[in-house]
Predict the 3D structure of the following.
Amino acid sequence: MAVKKIGKQTVRLKNPPSIISTYSIVGPKEGDGPLKEYFDFILQDDLCGQKTWEKCESKILEDAIKMAIKNAQLSEKKVEYVLAGDLLNQIISSSFAVRNLGIPYFGLYGACSTMAESLSLGSMLIDGGYADYLVCATSSHFCTAERQFRFPLELGNQRPPTSQWTVTGAGAAVLSSNGLGPYITHVTTGKVVDAGIKDVNNMGAAMAPAAADTIIQHFKDTGYRIDDYDLIITGDLGIIGKEIAEEFITKAGYDISKIFTDCGIEIFDNERQDTHAGGSGCGCSASVFCGYIYKLLKDKTLNRVLLISTGALHSTTSSQQGESIPGIAHAVTISNTKE
Amino acid sequence: MNKINPKEYNEYVQKKIPKPTFLKNSLWAFFIGGIICTFGQFIINFYKNMGLDKDGVSAATAITLVFLGAFFTGLGWYDKLGKRAGAGSIVPITGFANSIVSPAMEFKREGFIFGVAARMFTVAGPVLVYGYGSSVIVGLIYYLVKK
């Protein structure tokens, strides 16, 4: 019997894994944003000494994984799994990043929801007794995402006001069956929700219903009240998506407005940095969680956080064929206590 | 959560989208587009004074502007201009050069055959196909009507 399952979509972990270390790397633009003091490493340029942007993305993911393991004072041999994903076709950034590590690897794809997806699966692996140490990591890169999903960088086109800026960044977190916290206590797995948005320049609106669905379900399943949380933060809804999600959640009877924000809104100063509706990409929630939120949890500024990474599950082919954009959102509760 | 009606949701989302600053965008497009075209006129006058005939002047002017569009794309300036000017820098022939050179630059790392050559026309390709296509149709109509 599924003794750890509570409600429809949530798991309460009996032996909550501890996040014993994290590491975040971001590009120069993110390193110029409001969270610059929190990131562990800021790149000087978009290539970081590599020949291609794809190689660069893979490199920062590899470095983030290695540094997170080093910060945990572990040897790479002790790490039993890497769970990683990214946005590129066939998740090459992740698979190439781990090819020299010699650690068993699960490649994940949940678009920009992958960080919370990897934390969800990683914590269930540890709670189930299948591993003592593992790494959850994701990355994205502005230039690799632009060329795969949109236009060449040097093309003189205009970005609509709803568009978001893919974050160049990577984040890695080491989970352990032992440790002093913060702990992952609950996992709410999202459903695919398609509200019929077809505009690839308005991902926030495409993902907002999925985010609202997961957050509402999380409260229903766990019985938590809003006050139980210090922060509820979505991955990359941006300004428009966050506003829509907030309205949906409020309508369902949960007024989270005081503690609700979005990694994509926090990472850039939209006015000054000309990022329109905010940041996006797997690296957005990864770098903001591993760089910023983890540190606030560590110094007890925050004690319980709900992280909801949000993904748009379309491809260039599906969009060109006129399909709408399905959204998904996975939530994990990260708390300084095991409760 | 209740099931979402896609039509209602799309209408709801439309209301949330900030309006593009049409007046500002139009003014930028008008002035930058105007400046590029005025500059083109200077080039025409220059070649005329050099003693080229009418066809020669047109060809030489187009060659010069395409070169400049490609050159400034290579320097990484044209996309910055395009961000402000929009159609003002897309419509003139310099924008056409930009649309060919930018994918060529971008896909150099995939090699000269499957990268540069194959991807060069990803943006300009549709313009060429429908541009040539419509000119043939108009040409045919003109030929028949004239007869």
